[in-house]
Amino acid sequence: MPETIKDRISGILRFAIDSERIAFELYSKLAARSRDGSVKQLLSSLAEQEKAHRAKLEEVLAGKIALEAKPSALDRVSTDPVVEPPVKLESMDVQEALRFAMRRETASCRLYKNLAAATQTPEAKSLLTALAGEEAEHKLRLEKQLEELARP
pTM of the entire structure? Predict the structure, then answer.
C-alpha cells in the first residue's frame, strides 16, 4: 500500500521525536560524566531543551498543531540517521563528545529547516523555524564551550 502524505509526515515527526530523545540521553549522560562545572551546566541545560523540543513535536504528532505539506516538498526532508558516534560515547573525551554533539545539532537544524520549508501551515512553520533556530543556538553554545576548553 502506498505511503500517504499523513503517513510520511508522521514518520518524519517520529524520527524527529526519537532524535530529540537520543539528544536528551546523550546530554544527560555527558553531563553526569563531566568533571568540568561549566560543561556539566551546559549539557544539563541542553538536555532539558531537547526534552522540551520532544514535547513540542509530540504535540504536532498528536494533532494539537496542524502540519500540512505538499508531497513533493517533503521529498527534500531526509530522515537518514542523524549522526552516529564514531566510537562508543564512553570512550570519547569531552572534546570529541562536544564535536559529535555539534554534528547532531547541525543535522537537527537542517531537518527542521527543511520541514519548515515544506510546511504549509503557519503555526507548524513557526514552531519548526523556532526549533531550527534553537538547534543552531545549541551548536553555537557547544562551539563556544569547545573553544573555552581548548584555551591554555
Answer: 0.90
